[in-house]
Design a protein that fits this description.
Layout lengths: L5 E3 L20 E3 L11 H5 L5 E3 L20 E3 L17 H13 L4 E3 L7 H10 L8 E3 L20 E3 L20 E3 L20 E3 L20 E3 L20 E3 L20 E3 L10 H4 L2 H18 L1 E3 L20 E3 L19 H8 L2 H4 L45 E3 L22 E3 L20 E3 L12 H4 L1 H17 L1 E3 L10 H5 L1 H4 L4 E3 L20 E3 L20 E3 L20 E3 L20 E3 L21 E3 L20 E3 L10 H5 L2 H13 L1
Parallel strand pairs: 1-2, 2-3, 3-4, 5-6, 6-7, 7-8, 8-9, 9-10, 10-11, 11-12, 13-14, 14-15, 15-16, 16-17, 18-19, 19-20, 20-21, 21-22, 22-23, 23-24, 24-25
């Protein structure tokens, strides 16, 4: 018997194989197809180890002894057309090696590991697998990766001792609802499937330490995951997550959280409570919060920022020092109860919050604000609830919807109407958001602006009625006056209040206040530009005039003597109601042609400048009564334009370079004040000049006539 190598028993009515077949140890071919065999003895797999070809098809077999896994030399194994209860139908045509591997893995499951990876199993095929497991109580680890499973059958709930279950790269539609029975489960993986939602019952797997659900279609995280307090690793990357449920914060053991490649826009501040986290991945999301400069700092920087947001919600104070911020985070505008905002030692250039794109929505606001009627519901564990219109655009002010980004409230930071302390020291701020200060009128008590690049303080700061502490050392301030360091903010407030009062009186005098800049609000604010009639800025250090001075259409008197002005812009003479203009003691070297547009001008004083010529357009100022050109560099020549100034009563030409007086002076019959001393005059002669105005006019009139 030991020498027999081939045995054909096909097409008989055999119901079983004789026991003695185990003695055919040299058998290589065994064909027993087309019989009525219902059971094969396990000894076939234990003794006939030389078998290479075996055909057991067309019988009544339901189970295959796991000992057949020992037949490693089999190259042909035909087992079709049997009513199998443990061999999946899809496996009968997958080849001998796969079948032997399948049997071997079923057999090895008694050691605790059930490995069914890459066997092409379907949902129906899993039922056969379960029937083939020798002892379900011994299985603690199950791998079903790389199959075609759509649903995990309920029959698998008997694997109650499972500690690890892997279903990666299948077609799984959902996490089985019976998963709570796997109370010993420590690791669960269902990556690269078609799961659309996380089964809430997974929260009852209290021993779970690793949960991998990446590369699915999950939108939301159920609140029940908060019960997974032992979870250390959570992978949800490459899904369609819209919101990170704040309840994740209760999973105190989390160390690694992968949320990259989703559709998350805002990270909830509550995640700061995950103090053990060292690997937080958020790349591949269109995040509006935290800001990009925070994200580049890694998990430590992100958690630090979220901690401050959470403190702001709990204590109404936030400390964002040393966070390398380039812009004020937009989400701060939602924290309307904030009383203290510290932004020291960042890289801010402005205090205008950067509005993210795409524009913030109701859902975004709910993530940051928390609480309220739209964010959490239930008991201690927060429950996320979508706003009724989650994608509706919303501005930071009072939750009012905004149809487009252009219509956001202009003050943004001014939404913090309870702010008492604002500190932005050691930044690069070049301008302050003036429109937000009226919102701080009765709240802001401390404003610290040291070591920035401010040159102008906005006029609206005069409304800070309760401000007690103000500092801006280390700025190159040009406007308002420089003596604020000596006298403090009250001096600045008085300066601004004086400007504010001019709206009603139309009169403003800011004389000898060391101003380094023309107050921009006078030209840019319609309240002053249109109403101001008299403006005296003499005795300051103003180098240039504002380019929008042409808007000061109501101005009648402008006094700018004793400043540092080197150029007189044409916009000044577009103030067509101007009657008096005094620019004495400056450094003006040219006069623009637009001077002729101020036809109402009666007094033009340009003494002690660096003028050498005048445009002939000055002849259009026929109503001019007084003209001061003394202490300049004029030679004038004939200056026939003087003849048009028939109303001229006073003409000062002292300390110039005049060799001859213009003969046109001879026709100025109303002239009664002429000053020409300090000129190297040759015509008229000195004897004529010494006799006074009457002699000079007669002399020049004779020259005009002849």
């Amino acid at each position: 018997a030991w020498s027999l190598q081939s045995l054909w028993l096909s097409f008989n009515d055999l119901e079983t194989l004789p026991v003695c077949i185990e003695e055919l140890t040299g058998l290589k071919t065994l064909h027993i197809h087309h019989n009525r065999i219902t059971r094969l003895p396990p000894t076939v797999g234990l003794c006939l180890l030389e078998l290479t070809d075996m055909d057991i098809s067309h019988n009544q077999l339901t189970r295959l002894p796991l000992e057949f896994a020992n037949l490693k030399k089999l190259t042909s194994f035909e087992l079709r057309a049997n009513p199998w209860e443990m061999i999946p139908e899809e496996m009968t045509g997958r080849g001998t090696i796969t079948i032997i591997y399948f049997l071997q893995n079923l057999k090895d499951s008694v050691h605790g590991i059930l490995d069914m990876m890459g066997m092409g199993l379907t949902t129906n095929g899993l039922k056969y697998v379960k029937r083939g497991i020798p002892d379900v109580d011994l299985v603690h680890t199950a791998y079903f990766d790389d199959n075609l499973i759509r649903v995990l059958p309920k029959s698998f709930h008997v694997l109650t001792n499972l500690t690890a279950l892997s279903l990666d790269r299948n077609q799984l539609q959902c996490i089985p609802p019976w998963i709570p029975v796997l109370r010993d489960l420590v690791r669960f993986s269902a990556s690269k499937n078609q799961i659309h939602e996380i089964e809430p019952g997974i929260g009852e797997c209290l021993l779970l330490e690793k949960l991998n659900l990446d590369s699915n279609f999950i939108k939301y995280i159920p609140p029940t995951v908060a019960m997974l307090t032992k979870l250390a690793k959570l992978r949800l990357e490459n899904n369609v997550l819209l919101v990170v449920n704040p309840c994740v914060a209760y999973m105190q053991s989390l160390q690694r959280v992968w949320l990259n490649l989703n559709e998350i826009t805002m990270v909830p501040p509550e995640l700061c409570y995950l103090t053990n986290i060292y690997d937080l991945r958020l790349d591949g999301n269109s995040l509006k919060s935290p800001p990009a400069e925070i994200l580049t700092q890694g998990p430590v920087g992100i958690m630090s920022y979220l901690s401050q947001l959470q403190i702001a919600k709990d204590k109404d104070e936030i400390d964002l020092k040393h966070m390398m911020l380039l812009h004020v985070p937009f989400e701060l505008t939602y924290l309307t109860n904030l009383t203290k905002l510290d932004l020291d030692n960042n890289r801010l250039k402005t205090l205008w919050p950067l509005v993210p794109l795409p524009a913030p929505t109701l859902r975004d606001k709910a993530v940051i604000v928390g609480g309220g009627y739209w964010a959490y519901k239930g008991g201690r564990t927060p429950v996320w609830e979508e706003p009724e219109k989650p994608l509706q655009l919303v501005g930071p002010m009072d939750g009012q919807p905004t149809p487009s980004i252009k219509q956001y409230p202009v003050h943004l930071l001014g939404n913090l109407i309870n702010l008492q302390t604002l500190s932005v020291r050691h930044n690069l701020i070049q301008e302050l958001p003036g429109k937000c200060f009226p919102r701080f009128q009765t709240s802001l008590r401390e404003l610290l602006l040291d070591d920035n690049q401010l040159t102008v303080l906005p006029f609206q700061m005069h409304m800070l009625d309760v401000l007690e502490s103000f500092s801006m050392v280390g700025n190159d301030l040009k406007n308002p006056p420089l003596n604020y360091e000596k006298e403090g903010f009250p001096t600045l407030r008085r300066y601004w209040k004086r400007i504010e009062a001019s709206e009603k009186t139309g009169i403003l005098e800011l004389v000898n206040m060391s101003l380094l800049l023309f107050p921009p609000e006078l030209a840019m604010d319609e309240r002053y530009a249109y109403n101001l009639r008299y403006l005296d800025l003499s005795g300051n250090r103003i180098p240039t005039l504002h380019p929008d001075m042409n808007k000061m259409t109501g101005l009648e008197t402008l006094r700018l003597e004793n400043n540092l002005i080197s150029e007189l812009p044409g916009e000044v003479f577009q103030c067509t109601n101007l009657i008096e203009l005094n620019m004495d003691n400056n450094f003006i070297d040219t006069l623009p042609q637009q001077v002729g547009e101020c036809t109402r001008l009666t007094n033009l004083s340009l003494n002690n400048n660096k003028l050498s010529v005048l445009p002939e357009d000055i002849a259009q100022l026929t109503g001019l009564v007084k003209l001061g050109l003394g202490d300049n560099q004029f030679k004038l020549g004939t200056a026939w334009w003087l003849a048009a100034l028939t109303c001229l009563q006073s003409l000062w030409l002292y300390n110039n370079l005049l060799i001859a007086l213009p003969v046109a002076i001879g026709v100025l019959t109303n002239l009664d004040d002429l000053r020409v001393e300090g000129n190297p005059l040759k015509d008229p002669p000195a004897s004529v000049v010494a006799k006074g105005l009457k002699s000079i006019r007669e002399y020049l009139a004779y020259n005009v006539k002849y």
